[in-house]
Specification:
- The protein has helices at about 10-25, 30-35, 40-90.
- It is mostly helical and about 100 residues long.
- It has one domain (about 10-90).
- Helix 1 packs across helix 3.
- It is rod-shaped, with a radius of gyration of 29 Å.
- The relative contact order is 0.06.
Length: about 100
């Protein structure tokens, strides 16, 4: 019985294969036959890439939300400071008592 040696593929190659799937140009079966790679291997590459992308997207969304919240906090803080000054001015003039 002859054992097959395990082939190694570069990260760029794996990403190219996954990108072909994502663009919809080729199906897993077609890629498997053309490249001589088992379908299960291609599915594994796709799943691993999808999990990484999902984490990156989550991080990106959280960073965007954090920036928006900080900007909103700065606006609210500025509004509060303006109102404090207005109350101080009006109370000195005797308008507010």
């Amino acid at each position: 019985m002859e054992l097959k040696s395990r082939r190694k593929f570069s990260k760029e190659f794996r990403l190219d294969v996954v990108n072909m799937l994502k663009t919809g140009n080729k199906k897993v079966i077609e890629l498997s036959k053309e490249l001589g790679i088992a379908e299960s291997v291609i599915y594994r590459w796709y799943k691993k890439n999808h999990a990484n992308t999902t984490e990156e997207e989550k991080s990106s969304v959280q960073e965007k939300e954090l920036r928006e919240l900080r900007a909103r906090l700065a606006d609210v803080t500025e509004e509060r400071d303006i109102l404090k000054k207005a109350v101080s001015i009006f109370s000195k003039q005797g308008i507010l008592k």
